């Protein structure tokens, strides 16, 4: 019986040691899980902050893009007005130049016609004069 008591004592001591080891392992595992949980929490916070920053940047970029679109529309509309005015100005200039040239050519044509008529009259008068002179020279 002493042997059984001794064996039972040894088993009891081993169980006590193993229980202590199991408790240490459980404590270590709990500590590791707590550390892991804290790290996941920090990582989650970091990810949330990063996503929030990305969201803000996207909103900022959308606003900038919207402003660029508005500015481009303003420039486009301004250029359309400018080119419309340039075209209108060129049309007016073209018409003014055309009318000026037509008036000048019309006046020149009239003066040329008048000069031509006077020259024809002068030639007729000279022909008459030469005929008279010729008639007088032949008659003398």
Condensed summary:
The protein is mainly α. Helices cover about 100% and strands about 0% of the residues.
Secondary structure blueprint with pairings:
Blueprint: H1 2-139
Number of helices in the DSSP assignment: 1
Helix content: over 70%
* Ends apart, CA distance between termini: 199 Å
- Sketch the topology as an H/E string, one letter per element: H
Largest sheet: none
Low-confidence stretches: none
Q: DSSP strand (E) fraction? A: under 5%
Gross morphology is: rod-shaped
Please compute the radius of gyration using only Cα atoms. 59 Å
Compute the number of strand runs: 0
Mean pLDDT: 90
Output the structural class: mainly alpha
Write structural notes for this entry.
The protein is mainly alpha-helical and 140 residues long. The chain is built from 1 helix and no strands. The N and C termini lie far apart (199 Å). The model has no long low-confidence stretch (mean pLDDT 90).
Key structural traits:
rod-shaped, single chain, 140 residues, mainly alpha
């Amino acid at each position: 019986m002493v042997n059984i008591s001794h064996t039972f004592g040894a088993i009891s001591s081993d169980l006590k040691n193993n229980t202590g080891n199991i408790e240490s392992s459980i404590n270590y595992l709990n500590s590791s899980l707590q550390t892991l949980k804290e790290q996941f929490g920090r990582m989650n916070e970091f990810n949330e902050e990063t996503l929030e920053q990305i969201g803000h940047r996207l909103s900022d970029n959308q606003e900038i893009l919207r402003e660029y679109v508005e500015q481009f529309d303003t420039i486009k509309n301004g250029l359309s007005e400018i080119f419309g005015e340039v075209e209108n100005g060129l049309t007016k200039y073209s018409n003014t130049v055309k009318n000026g040239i037509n008036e000048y050519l019309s006046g020149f044509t009239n003066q040329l016609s008048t000069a031509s008529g006077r020259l024809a009259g002068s030639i007729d008068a000279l022909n008459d004069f030469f005929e008279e002179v010729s008639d007088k020279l032949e008659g003398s």
